[in-house]
């Protein structure tokens, strides 16, 4: 018997490459989400800036800065630690993106139920 799905499918794990554009998805409550891979690990957040709750990406899924070390908001340049969602600079230092629990299994990335 196959294992039950661990949650909501976000997409293929292979679609997430380190510090490359992420996958957008919609949470069950309708909020936008974004999943990225950083240093081999997948992270996901509600796609809403901690400064003003607009989506971080102007170009779909493109949330890493040019160095590939930070998530950056396209609106006013807040930048975040990809591993914690903590704002490290810009207009909202110390605030955080809302983290989501993801599961990478059998070549797929899931939003945990
Ligand atoms: S809305 Fe994101 S930095 Fe202002």
End-to-end Cα distance = 20 Å
Compute the number of strand runs: 10
Task: Tell me the series of helices and strands, N- to C-terminal.
Answer: EEEEEEEEEE
Instruction: Name the helicity range.
Output: under 10%
Mean pLDDT metric: 96
Name the shape in a single word.
globular
CATH uppermost class of the domain at 23-98: Mainly Beta
- What is the CATH superfamily classification of the domain at 23-98? Rieske [2Fe-2S] iron-sulphur domain
Q: Kindly report the CATH topology of the domain at 23-98.
A: Rieske Iron-sulfur Protein
- SS summary, helix count: 0
Walk me through this protein's architecture.
The chain is mainly beta and 113 residues long. It has a domain at 23-98: Rieske Iron-sulfur Protein (3-layer Sandwich), CATH 2.102.10. 0% of the residues lie in helices and 36% in strands. The protein has no helices and ten strands. It has strands at 7-12, 23-26, 32-38, 41-46, 71-72, 79-80, 87-89, 99-100, 102-105, 108-112. The strands form three sheets. Strands 2-3-4-8 form a four-stranded antiparallel β-sheet, with no helix packed on it. A three-stranded antiparallel β-sheet has the order 1-10-9, with no helix packed on it. The chain has a three-stranded antiparallel β-sheet with strand order 5-6-7, with no helix packed on it. The model has no long low-confidence stretch (mean pLDDT 96). The chain binds FE2/S2 (inorganic) cluster.
């Amino acid at each position: 018997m196959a294992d039950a799905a661990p949650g909501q499918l976000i997409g293929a794990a292979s679609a997430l490459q380190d510090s490359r554009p992420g996958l957008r998805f919609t949470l069950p409550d309708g909020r936008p989400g974004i999943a990225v891979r950083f240093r081999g690990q997948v992270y996901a957040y509600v796609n809403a800036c901690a400064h003003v709750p607009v989506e971080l990406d102007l170009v779909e899924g493109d949330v890493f800065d040019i160095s590939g070390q930070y998530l950056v908001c396209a609106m006013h340049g807040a930048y975040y630690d990809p591993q914690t969602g903590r704002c490290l600079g810009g207009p909202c230092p110390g605030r955080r993106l809302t983290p989501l629990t993801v599961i990478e299994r059998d070549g797929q990335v899931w939003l945990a139920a």
